[in-house]
Design a protein that fits this description.
Blueprint (H helix, E strand, L loop, with lengths): L4 H4 L15 E3 L7 E6 L5 E8 L2 E8 L4 E4 L8 E6 L5 E8 L6 E8 L6 E4 L5 E6 L5 E6 L6 E6 L6 E2 L7 E6 L5 E6 L6 E6 L6 E2 L7 E6 L6 E5 L6 E5 L7 E2 L7 E6 L5 E6 L6 E6 L2
Antiparallel strand pairs: 1-24, 2-3, 3-4, 4-5, 6-7, 7-8, 8-9, 10-11, 11-12, 12-13, 14-15, 15-16, 16-17, 18-19, 19-20, 20-21, 22-23, 23-24
Family: Belongs to the TolB family.
InterPro entries: 6-blade_b-propeller_TolB-like, WD40
Protein name: TolB protein
Amino acid sequence: MGGLVALVGTVSFARSDQAYPTSWQRLTEDGDYKAHLAWSPDGSRIVFTRIHEGKMSLWLLHIASRQLTRLTSRDTGPDFDPAWFPDGKRLAYVYDQLQGTDGKLFIYTLDSDGSNPTVLIPNKAFEECPRVSPNGQHLLFVSTRDGNQEIYLADVTGKNIRRLSNHPAPDTHPCWSPDGKRIAFASARSGNWDIWVMNADGSETRRLTDHPALDCWPVWAPDGRRLAFTSNRDGNYEIYLIRPDGTALHNVSHSPAWEHFATWSPDSRRLAFVSTCSGGYDIYVVDCP
C-alpha cells in the first residue's frame, strides 16, 4: 500500500500512557489503529480507517451512542481513506487489491450503509486521496500515473480526468475550500513537506506554511475561516490551525503524544482527530471556538 504510507510512514507511532487533556472528549477506547477521519455532513457520524482483527476496513463511529459499525470487509485487500459526498448518502474511498509488493489501488464509491461498492477510478497507477467537491460534481484524487504523486480532477462519474499539479516533487492530501474555488494540499516542492493552496483549476499556486518540519493533511473548515493540518514542528506530531492567508498559526492539540488525521465538525466549532495519548490509537474531539 505505497500510497497509504507515503506520509504516514514518516510519522513515529510511539505510544504514550499520558492521560488526555481535560478539554478533550474521548470517543473511542478500543485502541485499534485508526486513520483518515471524515465527519459526516449531518454531524452524526465519523467514518474512518481502522485495523481490527488483522483487517484494514472502513468503519463508522455513531457519535451519540459511540457505536462502531464496520462498512467494508474484504479478503482481497484493504479499504481506506474515505470521503463523504456532500449529501451524506455515499462515500468515496481507496481499495488496494493486494498483488505483488504494493498492490493495485482503485478509487471506489459505496453507499453510507456499506452497500453497492462501485469502481469510480480504475487502477492505472497508485490512485488515492479521493475528495468530492462541495457541490458534488467533481472529484479530486492523487495519482502516480504520470510518474510521481500529482493531484487530478475528474467529474464525479470518474470521467474527464485532468491533471491539476505539475511538479517533480510529490503533491498529495488535497482538500476543497467550502466554496469549491480553492484547493489546499501537501507538497514537498519546497524541499520539505509544507501546505500549499491553488485555485480549483490548478492556477496561482502559493505556499501557506514555511517551516523545515513536516506539514501535511490539511482540512478546510466548513465556514472557510481556518484550516487544520498535522505538523511535527514542535518535536512531535500535533494538530495546528491556520488562516487561509497564512496568519494565526496555532497548536490546538498541545499533547506529548501523537495526533493526526483531523476532521472538522459541520459547524466548524470542533475538531476530531486520532491520538495515542491514552496508549492506543483513539478518536478525540476538541472545541475550536
